[in-house]
Every structure is written in C-alpha cells, then in structure tokens.
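User: I'm curious whether this sequence folds into something compact or stays loose and floppy. Could you predict its structure so I can see for myself?
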Amino acid sequence: MSARVPASGDPVLELLLSRLRLHDAVTTPYYVQLQRQIQALIDGGELRTGHGLPSERVLAKALNISRTTVKRCYDSLREAQTLASSQGRGGTVVKAAPRVSPAMQRLRGFTEEMRELGLEPSARVLECAVVQDRMVASIFGRVSNAEFFKLVRVRLADGVPMSREVAWYDLAVAPALAEWDGQGSAYAYLHEHCGIELAWADQSVEAVLSSPEEAEVFGFAQPAPCLLLKRRSHSAQHALVEYVEGTFRGDAYAYRLRLQA
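Assistant: Here's the prediction. I'll summarize afterward.
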C-alpha cells in the first residue's frame, strides 16, 4: 500500500494509524481486516467507551484506502452494536451491554434487581416534575386535573444504558415524592419518606422497536428490538401508587419465569 497521511493532532486517529495494518497478501477484504483490528483495540481497552472514531473521509484519506471500505467497516461495527452514530464523526465507541436474565417472581425495582445480578445500578434523570395529565389520571382513576410526579430516567448497569423509563406516581397517595430528585431507588424512597410498602403489581411485557429517543440512549444506529414493560404497582392498602413504562434493550434482556403444573 502507499504511504499513509500523517495524523493531525487527533489522538484516536494517531492511535489507529499506529496500530492498523492492512495486508495485500491475504484474501480477507480490507474492511474485514479493519473491523477486526478496531474491535481488537476496543476489546483490549485502547479504544474506550466514549471515544469518537474519525469520519469515513478522514480515516480513508489517512490510510490511503477507499471511503467505501471504511464505511463497510463502520457499518459492521454498528451492526455489532460496538459503534454508535455520532454527528460529524465515524461513530462513538460504546460498551457492550451485559446480558442479564432476571426472574419475574416477585416485585422489585431496577436497583435491587441489578444488585442481585452483581451489577452496579445508576440512573441519569432526564425529567423530574409535578404534572397534570388526563391520560395518566384515567389510569389512576383520578380527576383530570390531579397532580402526579413524573420521572423519566435512563437506567444503567455498570455504566451501560439498560432501559429508558417513564414513571408516574400518585401524589395524593405519596405527596412527599414531590420533593424527590429522582436519584436512587423509587421503592426505597417510598418506604423511607412516604411510609409506603408496595405489595403487588400487574405487569405486561411486549416486543417493540426502539423509538428514536431510545435508540439514541442505547447507542443503536437504527431501530432495534426491545422489551416494553408496563407495570402498575399497588400498596398493601390496594392503592395504585406507580404506573411505569420501561423500554429495555433487547440485546441485553431475557426474562425468566418458573411455571408449575
């Protein structure tokens, strides 16, 4: 191959130019060689989550190869969900989601569930507000101008986005929630600050494709299969306390059920 173009101050590009070696004497196409070598840099920790790869044009020019070759490489990395689309760059490296298989046998929140699986839970709050919503009021059986605490969060396990949740809580039942910042476990806050123990829930699970908002959160290059969980959680006094819709990434979740004859 011809000489490469020197890097221009981009540390990721400089790393790629120092590590990538494309060989003419093998039958493996350039884009496959490129994909495997970039994947190896990610697996080895030299390219880490959040690193932005150079654009197709920049990398093609630097390696003196066609832009189509780089595009096919990046497309393969996106299909493997190693690379997320990024404005103005080739993409952003994303950490592979851990595979989890929680059992659906008792009522518990995301925080407790992840800790039981040996993962560190965290959350990124997108919206936290007291709202009025006619549709939500009808779910709770309240008047149309009733107030609810709305919480939109991205739930993470070991730093990887696992779900995007939209939850509503009845402030007539748990008024102290209006002061909550949305961090930590909702169930723990209900117990510690509202004196409410959730006793049971109705939950449904359905297959969906990720919305544009969810695809961005999960780092998907295009809509991908997800699980939509809808849950209505009740107190021991049979009051509906929580209604939540959570979209969980399909490449990470497989729920287990035990059925007895």
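Summary: Residues 30-43 form the longest helix (14 residues). The chain has eight helices and nine strands.
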